[in-house]
Amino acid sequence: MALVGELRRRNIFKVSLAYMIVSWITVQVADVILPTFQAPDWVMQVLVLFLILAFPVAVLLAWAFELTPQGLKSTSDVDQTQSITVETGQKLNHVVIALLGIAVVVLIIDNYIFPDTTVTDPDVAYRRAIAVIPFSNGSIAEENAEFFSAGIHDELLTRLAKISDLKVVSRTSVMEYKDTTKNIRQIGEELQVGSILEGGVQLAGDVLRINVQLVDSLIDEPIWAETYEREFNAANLFAIQGEISTTIAAELKARLSDAEQSRINAAPTESMAALEAYYAGKYELHQRAPDTMLTAIQHFSNSVKIDPQFGPAWAGLAETWLELPNYIASVDPMRVRMEATAAANRAIALDPESPDAAATFAWHELLYSYDWVNAEETFQKALAIDASNINALHWYSHLLSWKGQHGQAIALARQAVQADPLSTLMATNLSYILADARQWDEAFDLGSKVFSNQEYSSLTANLWIGKMRARRALDAALDLERWAKQTNRDLEAAISLGEILVRVQAGEEISDDIGEIIGKLHIETQLPEVYAALGDAENTIATLIELQKSGIGFRSILSMRINPAYDFVREDPRFQTLLETVGLNE
How many domains in the chain? Predict the structure, then answer.
C-alpha cells in the first residue's frame, strides 16, 4: 500500500494515463496523414514501436524527477515539505481532461466527418470492383499477336488481383466481352463492377505501345488514361504492368502495402523468348481441350528450358499436368504424377509468395501425398495474397468438402462464382460441392442451368455421378448417355449401364456381364462408385484399393469420408483402413 501511495504522490498514474492518450491521438493522426504522403508501412510501424518503448522511460522519469518552481529536479533532492506534486497533479488533471476532449474530437472527425471509405462508403467499394476487358490487338506481327495481347491482359489481371483493396473479376468472365458491342454501363451492370479497364497492345518492330483507359462504369466517363511506349523487352513490359497497377490503385484510392507493391512490380524473367512461350502456354491452357492441353505443355516446357528460373512458367506447367487426366483419359497416370511433382516443387521453390504456385502445389500435395494439413495451409496462404485466386478457391473448396466441412466449402465455391460469375467451370464446381453436401436439388438444378448454356463434359460427368449417388438412376442414365457422346465413349455400353442402374434401383436381379460393359466405357476412376450403385460391396472395396495403390488421389478415393455411395460398406474394416491410409479417419 505504501508503494501505491508513493505512486499516487508522484503522479505516476496520471502521467501514464496522459501518455497513453497522447500516444493514441498521435497514432490516429498519423494513420490519416501518412497515406497522404504515400509513406511506406514501416513508418507507422516504427512510430508505434517508439511510443511503446518510450512508455517505461516516461514512467521512470516521472518517478525519478519532480517539477519545481526552480525547474526539473531529482526527487531525492527535493525537500518533501517543499514538494509541489499536489499542485502538479491538479494541473495533470486538467491536462488529462483536455486530452480526453481532443480524443473525442478525433473520434468524431474520424468516424463521422471523414469516415474510412474503405469500410463505410459503398460507392468507393463499388468503384474498387474492377473488370479488365480483353485488350484489342493492333500488332503488325500477326503470327504471335493474339496470344501476346492475351498474355499481357492475363498478366495485368494477375497483378491487380494481388492488391487486396481491389475486387478483380477473373479472366473467364471478362473474356466473354472480347470484341463486344456492349457499352461500359452494360458490362458494369452485368459484372457488378464500378470500374472497367480497357486497352490495346501494339507491337511494331522493336517498339511496344500499350494504351489503357480506366472508366467509371456508373457514368461511363474516363477516370484516367495513359499510353506507354517503350523499347520492346521483358523488363519494360513488366515495368509498364507495374506502373498501370500502381496508378489504378491510386486512382481508386486503394491502399497498397509494401508487400503488394513488391509483388506487382516483380519481373520474374528477363527473357522475352521465355515470356512469349509462357504467354502461348497460358493461351492454350485456357482453351481447356485435349489438344490445347498438350500444346500448352509444349509451350511451358519451352519457356522453362529457356529460363529455368521462371517461376510462373513452372506453375503453369504443373497446373497443366495436374489437369491433363480430366481431358485425356488414356494419359499415363504415373508420368502425370512425375511431371506434375517436378514442376509444382520447382514453382513453389522459386516463388513461395506466388498464389498460383501455392495453389498448384497445395492441390498436388493433396492428390499425391494425401497431406491434408500442408495442402490446407498452403491454400490459405495463396488466398491471403489473392483472395480471388480461382484455382485456390476451386481446389480448396474440394478439400473442405471432402473433410466434411460443407458450410465452408459451399461458401468458398460461391465466392469463386462471384469472382468469376460467367465461368462454366466455377458454376460446375459449385454444383459438385452442393452435391457433396447432399443438397441434391440445388446441385442438379444449377448443373442443368449450366448444361443448357454449354455442353461441358466435366459437368456432365459430375451430373451422372452425382445423380447415381443420390439414387436417381433414370436421370443418371440420361446424363451418362450424354457424357458418352461428349467424350466419344461407347454409346451402346453407356446406354446398357444406364438401364442396369435403373433396374438395380427397382430391385431387379442382374445377370448381365457388367465387367464387359464397364470395360468398353473406360471409367476406371469412377468404377468404385459404379459398383457401389450396383450394390456390389466386394468390387467396390477391391476397386478402391486398386485406385489407392496407384498413388494418385482420384476423387473416388478423396471423397470416401462423405460419399453416400459408400455408406453400405462404411463399417467394413478394409474401408476403415483405406480411410486411415489417405488421412480421412479423423
Answer: 2
